[in-house]
Amino acid sequence: MTTPNGWLLYDDDCGMCHTSVARWLWYLQRHGIVPVPSAHPWAKTQLAQKGIDVSNPTGPREIRLLLANQQLIGGVEVILTLAALTPGCRPLVALAKLPGIFQCLQWGYRQVAQNRQRISGVCGLRPSANRIAAPHPEQLPDLLAP
Is 46 exposed, middle or buried (0-12, 13-18, 19+ CB in 10 A)? Predict the structure, then answer.
């Protein structure tokens, strides 16, 4: 089994988050990104070792991407990083990183993230609708061991 390019840490209890990951699973797999629920013990360990508070009872505040080089990014940066994997999206990603535009995208992402449970309820998005297979243990190396 090849080493993944990264691990997408998402809130599996959120219907919108789960549905989004299930819908884009083919894209993630194509680019070597392994989806891992943030509540998974491996994900909690990786986040805690990066200084992220994992005790929030309402789940994570944003989606995170742990890259193979151990860089951890979150929120709208994750979306832009994943979009940049497709050559046709790279010009849009470059524009999105311009001052002012990036801040607007961050604000928009935060609004959606803060209201994701309400959005899930209104849209009828249930996490149990399309279960995503748990990552294979070989896909979850002990990256941050001392």
Answer: buried
* pLDDT value of position 144: 44
Helical H runs in the chain? 15-23, 25-30, 41-49, 76-83, 90-96, 101-114, 116-123
Q: Is 6 helix (H, G, I), strand (E, B) or coil?
A: strand
- Confidence (pLDDT) at 33: 94
Neighbouring CB atoms inside 10 A of 72's CB total 19
Which tokens belong to 78? Answer: 């994750």
C-alpha dist (Å) from residue 38 to 31, 41, 62:
20, 8, 10
Separation of alpha carbons 11 and 39, rounded Å = 7
**What residue ranges of the chain have pLDDT lower than 70?**
1, 57-60, 121, 124, 127-131, 133-134, 137, 142-146
Which amino acid belongs to residue 66?
L
Domain ranges for the chain: 6-139
pLDDT (0 to 100) of residue 131: 66
Element (H, E) at 34: strand 33-37
